[in-house]
Here is the input.
Amino acid sequence: MKYMFALAAFLCAALPAGAETIEELKAQLEAQKQLNALQRQRIETLEAELAGRKIAPPARAEVAAPEIAADDPEADRALERALQRRGSAVLAPYVVEVAPSLFWSHAGSDATISTDDIYGAGLDGRIGLPGGWMLGAGVPFLHREIDDVGNNSGVGDVSATVWKSLFAEEGSRPSLVASLRYAAPTGDDIGDDDVPLGTGFHRVTARLSTVKTIDPIAFFGDLSYTHYIDDTISGADVDRSGRIGLGLGASLAVTPDVSLSAGLDFAHEDEVEINGTDVRGSSVTLGQVELTAGILLTRDVFLNFTSAFGITDDSPDVTLGMSLPVRF
Here is the structure.
């Protein structure tokens, strides 16, 4: 019996200690489970990053280079300058361009065995405006010599023009520019005693110009109509028919600083009416092959050479010219 009491006393003393050990084990086990859960979460996170399913923490953002607009002067090449000189593209807003020019035109007539030579210098200015607008004006100074008639020097017909870019080239769609030009009869006309230096008529020309670029070539086309305002010359009422014009061609960017262009220009005007009667043989059909070369000398200076060769009887035989557009 004494041994029974001793055994009971031993068990009673041991039970609290055993219970405390079990609780500690349970706590350790629970802590280990939490640690394992954290490890599993970390492994899943790493696997997701390696598989690209998780976006890494954002690094310092890189600033993208700003896009340069197509009409920005800094983006210009000789090709763009050549198209702008044709009026097939407009200047960037607030860009001013002044262009002095020289030209010579020669026409010969087999029927009268006479020649007609025109030596000219010109000055025109243009300014780009917001919204795809451009304004310009020009004045020519001429010296003309006609065999068996005489010669004359002075100011030719001055003109003012407004251009509007209707939409820029995008994808397969070409660009389209509309223009309206007014020319005043400031040059001596056929009613004067001197050799004429102008048409003698107020006239308005509407034109549509389109460009489609397949780098390094830009294809262009023009469609125009000129309306002559009726006038009285030497006491007679003169009514000139409207003139319809068509031009087609292409410009090649040989290098960023050099461009070459070739084109065909046609225009037709019906017979003139004097006091309501048609003048037989006064209709005119003009046709020319044009060749031009442009060189970008500096960022602001462009040298442009032009030549044209007549392919119809009414056209000048040859026209040569050069201009030096300078931007400010």
Q: What stands out?
A: The longest strand covers residues 114-129.
